[in-house]
Design a protein that fits this description.
With 262 residues, the protein is of the alpha/beta class. It has 8 helices and 10 strands. The structure holds adenosine-5'-diphosphate and magnesium ion.
């Protein structure tokens, strides 16, 4: 149910046989630090096909959250472009960006970020009240909470749920609008190992059952191992891009980093 305008169609990625769910083209991000400028991202390019589960991996401070903020349209790159589902989201007016975020991008955070005064069901319903949608938000929320195994927790507030359950509610909320892509920043970072595994298994199952594209950031190589593909960021560049069977991806990141050292 893509809502497109002539402008969006004209801005589509084109030439690659159907738009990728996500395309990052030469993303750079510099920030002032005192009198200096630090370059956090120095030319990141990759594209993610629909239904792919990709991990962005790198040590703490390597720029993963900065990159995710840019691909989610929460932050602007210094240069480069981001396409979501073929739509160029770079430098859009905020009102238009807000609509695309609501319709096409689901976000999941390390700290769950549920609204504490709302029940699980109300948290999942919340994004469905933005804009005009067919169907009942309550019914859709119940269906999604059943999909993540929380049909018995509809009326619980976040402080009445375990961390693992809260993250499952957050994932259901991210899926509520049927987004093209779900972007999750360290989704297992606040969970113990067992609940972390459960969340990763859930993401894999949801990808299989709904075809949703997932991009997660993690500093933990074992978490990245749960994804189909792992893109590692070193010194602001893509240092490697491998699929789960160990094959190096080609033709996406044009930049070759020898040793990753300046
Ligand atoms: P990661 O998520 O991989 O841990 P971040 O994207 O959070 O990395 O941060 C990358 C680098 O950018 C870090 O060195 C961080 O200190 C710096 N940084 C992030 N945001 C800002 C900001 N608003 N101002 C200055 N430096 C920042
Ligand atoms: Mg981070």
């Amino acid at each position: 149910m893509a809502i497109t305008t002539g402008t969006e169609a004209a801005q589509g990625t084109g030439g690659t046989g159907g738009a990728a769910a996500l395309e990052a083209r030469d993303i750079r991000k510099s920030l002032p630090l005192g009198a200096e400028t630090i370059e956090i991202l120095r030319g990141i390019s990759f594209s993610v096909a629909g239904g792919e589960f990709t991990a962005i991996v790198g040590p703490s401070g390597s720029g993963k959250s900065t990159l995710l903020g840019i691909i989610a349209g929460l932050d602007e790159p210094t240069s480069g472009r981001v396409y979501i589902d073929g739509i160029d989201i770079t430098n859009l007016p905020e009102s238009r960006m807000a609509r695309i975020r609501n319709q096409k991008i689901g976000m999941v955070f390390q700290a769950f970020n549920l609204i504490p005064t709302l029940t699980a069901q109300e948290n999942v319903e919340a994004p469905l009240y933005v804009g005009r949608r067919p169907g009942s938000p309550a019914a859709r929320a119940r269906e999604l909470l059943a999909l993540v195994g929380l049909e018995a927790r509809l009326g619980h507030r976040p402080n009445q749920l375990s961390g693992g359950e809260q993250q499952r509610v957050a994932i259901a909320r991210a899926l509520a609008a049927g987004p093209a892509i779900v972007i999750a920043d360290e989704p297992t970072g606040n969970l113990d190992q067992r609940n972390g595994h459960n969340v990763l298994d859930l993401i894999r199952r949801l990808r299989d059952e709904t075809g949703t594209t997932f991009v997660i950031a993690t500093h933990d190589p074992t978490v990245a191992g749960a994804a189909d593909r792992s893109i590692s960021i070193v010194d602001g560049l893509v240092a490697s891009d491998t699929t789960v069977d160990g094959n190096e991806r080609s033709g996406q990141g044009e930049r070759v980093v020898a040793g990753g050292v300046e």
